[in-house]
Amino acid sequence: MGKLLYGDSQVEIQFDDRALAHLQIVIGAKLRRRESFFLSWRDDPSVGDGRSSIWIDAAIPLYFKYFGGRLPDINREWLELLTQSAHSSHGLQLMDEPGNHNGHPPRSNA
After folding, report:
1. pTM of the predicted model as reported, rounded to 2 decimal places
2. Is 29 helix (H, G, I), strand (E, B) or coil?
3. Alpha-carbon distance 43 to 51, whole Å?
4. Does a structural domain hold residue 109?
5. Is 108 part of a structural domain of the chain?
6. Which domain holds residue 79?
7. Three-class SS of residue 25?
8. Listed residue (10, 14, 2, 3) closest to 68, CA to CA
9. Any idea what DSSP says for residue 89?
10. Burial of 38 (0-12, 13-18, 19+ CB in 10 A)
11. Which residues neighbour 84 within 8 Å (Cβ) at sequence distance 6 or greater?
């Protein structure tokens, strides 16, 4: 499990390394264009099984910390779906990876 450390608030959000790599690409592209947006995800059942969101802005420091040492393969279809959601009025919604049928979709612990 990787972590997204959000701002100076000491907030650490855990994501699967694979999901975090895809999020980093989409978030980086949006911030290069100076676009602010919400990032939302389903919480892990251990923290209530609800939903969480954070505001992403170029002025807020982000730190991506991966558990594994290798960059996961990038699923272009998933990347496109995440990018489309990032451009929507709801913001970037972490969704299950297309073709992920192992019963364990990427989830987070906030």
Report:
1. 0.85
2. helix
3. 5
4. no
5. no
6. 2-98
7. helix
8. 2
9. T
10. middle
11. none
Residues in the chain, pLDDT under 50: 101-110
Alpha-carbon distance of 24 to 30, in angstroms, equals: 10
Residues 73, 19: contact at Cβ < 8 Å? no
Per-residue tokens: 85: 């959601």
pLDDT > 90 in the chain, percent: 72
Helix%, strand%, coil% for the chain, nearest 5: 25, 30, 45
Number of domains comprising the chain:
1
Structure tokens that stand for 3 in this block: 């972590």
Q: Is 106 exposed, middle or buried (0-12, 13-18, 19+ CB in 10 A)?
A: buried
Cβ atoms of 26 and 86 within 8 Å: the answer is yes
Query: At which residue do the structure tokens 């709801």 appear?
Result: 90
Residue pair 13/65 in contact by the 8 Å Cβ criterion? no
Total count of residues recorded for the chain? 110
Cα distance between residue 84 and residue 37, in whole Å: 13
